[in-house]
Inverse folding.
């Protein structure tokens, strides 16, 4: 006996399910790559930042891997900035082209604080020991 199975024709419902499955498979990688504010591979609790859209009265700057994190740090006029050196060498946070602020030497593992300028604007800064390290204090 030659038993032939009946030919199966997809229904509208099964086509819709297949379409949804294909879309889900295509969209998941895009969602994983999008900048959802979680900071990428860095846990959000370890991402230094100041709160508030125009700066906070307190801000935190971290020195890590010969870089300022974040590179652009918002803070309110006259706000306090705490700097933590997570590198294995000494660094500074010094206003470029002026004397608006200077932490002096910050030893490895140490912290320093300074007061942000009272006038709104962008204040570029550098490490005087490692001049390739650059950042901007955004006072607003």
């Amino acid at each position: 006996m030659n038993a032939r199975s009946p030919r199966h024709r997809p229904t509208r419902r099964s086509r819709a399910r297949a379409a949804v499955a294909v879309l889900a498979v295509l969209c998941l990688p895009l969602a994983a790559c999008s900048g959802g504010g979680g900071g990428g591979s860095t846990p959000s609790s370890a991402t230094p930042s100041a709160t508030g859209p125009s700066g906070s009265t307190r801000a935190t700057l971290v020195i890590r891997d010969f870089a300022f994190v974040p590179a652009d740090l918002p803070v309110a006029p006259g706000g306090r900035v705490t700097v933590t050196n997570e590198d294995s060498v000494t660094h500074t946070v010094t206003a470029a082209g002026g004397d608006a602020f200077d932490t002096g030497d910050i030893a490895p593992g140490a912290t320093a604080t300074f007061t942000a300028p009272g006038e709104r604007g962008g204040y570029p800064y550098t490490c005087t020991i490692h001049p390739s390290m650059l950042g901007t204090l955004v006072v607003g």
